[in-house]
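I am writing to request your help with a piece of structural work I have in hand. I am sending you one protein, given as its amino acid sequence and as whole-number tokens for its backbone shapes. Kindly check, if you would, that the fold set down in the tokens agrees with what the sequence suggests. You will find the record immediately after this paragraph:
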Amino acid sequence: MTYQQTPPAVLLLIVATEPALRLRLEWLERAGYSVRTASSLKDVDQACHAQRFDIVLVADSVEPKMKKAIGMTVRHHSPDAPILQMGRIRPDIDGNCFVTGDSREGVLKSVENILQGRENIRPAAI
């Protein structure tokens, strides 16, 4: 008898710098997630056009204007996709948006909570 494993959640990780990207990518892949990365608006648009993501993660190092454009691009392709902003206290992207600290534990716990649809994590007030 074979058991079918649930496929890993697919995440889009958007980070401005290569060292930060490598670190967060390692955290997420070690936790068992399938991760696609992007560092430009073009990358985000192509990624969102090619596939659906369970969560989009955006590092705080991404410029504010770029974050707004990323938010609009993600919403265009996947209106209900949750966006997790790492290293923020308040969101600066509209819609189904969450915030978390920038620690490994904070990021992984927030991703898990969002994926499980836990009630104790609500979309941040806009």
User: Anything to note?
Assistant: The CA atoms of residues 98 and 123 lie 5 Å apart. The first strand starts at residue 10 and ends at 14.
